[in-house]
């Protein structure tokens, strides 16, 4: 839904049931969260012949560590405490837009 509203041609996300054009609130399949997000990302990359090593992923949450560790260019954006620690240890870029600063950078 969000991808459609933004005019994007594709997105990965949890699917919600619709009946007669109305969202019911029921999920279709598993929620795309944690390890499931990593699986969905890998499937998309395989389907579209994309290189995960050359791909970027952005997140603010430790819940996305499986996705972030699947790509060659992970970036922490306004990260929670656990993601901040992980990103610092892994030397990932950390963007804090609340403070308008780049905390770490990786070439």
UniProtKB/TrEMBL annotation:
Pfam name, any one: HAD
Gene3D superfamilies for this protein: HAD superfamily/HAD-like (3.40.50.1000)
Protein name: Unannotated protein
